[in-house]
Prior knowledge:
mainly beta, 104 residues, Immunoglobulin-like, four-stranded antiparallel sheet, elongated
Amino acid sequence: MAEKSPLKIEQSEKFEGDDWWSWSVWVEGPKRDLDAVEFVEYTLHPTFRDPVRTIKTRHNGFKLSTGGWGVFPIYARAFRKDGSIVRLKHQLKLTDPDGKKNLK
């Protein structure tokens, strides 16, 4: 059975107009667990240019910022300094200007 990790993906998003949102995802968890991570590899929807992106900046939770118009699952692999990997998944959520979540 896979080890249960306290790490999780969080997000922020902002409607920019014309059916477009800017958004960010990052990894949160206890300091000790985050300090053990060397880098995070995010896998976005295959329609993105360079859908697999590696983030090495620990100080901001390995934050990835980009934009788009639709929702999809984001997969991440947190590579620990000890060589182990934590697999994470997050469903990107976007809020329409009327305040309703866009779950299409």
